[in-house]
Design brief:
By secondary structure, the protein is of the alpha+beta class. It is built from 7 helices and 6 strands, in the order ααααααββββαββ.
Length: about 170
Amino acid sequence: MGWTSECMSWETLASIIDDGSDETLAKLLRSKEVLDTYMDFLAKLCYSVDSRESAGDREIEIKEDYESVASFLWVSAFGCEWVLNADGKKKAVGVPPVQTEGSGPVILLKSNDFPYYFDEGIQHHILWSTEPLSPEEISKQIENRLEAVYPCSAKTDFRFGTGSSRFVLAAPM
């Protein structure tokens, strides 16, 4: 994974996302500082001995505290309750607190903790859903959520990618 010292403009970013190929999306890079933080976080998720050795000691080790990455996400992103499994690791149970059986997916638009390196004013968000969404539904959900975040008077342009990585990028204009 590479990094960059130059911020990416909205025009370049929009072109990359509109292309949408994995090869082109690979041009999206983080700053060195954010990449280092991201790699440190990924080391917590990895189950290999090499990753553990390079990650050093941690107060909280996701791989040691949670049954799976999925359980970590269900608990941390969606607020699901958890129980300890037979190995003493957290296992997500039930549905998110804001979801009831048959009520449809819980959908969250959150700022990316490890954003790519863009010009000032461009924000990198992730759309989380408890169920798969079509590209049309993703677009609708983004529009609805961005309206709540940005004032009605501000024009907001957005692009979203649905390649190997799912992400949302919004830039108030």
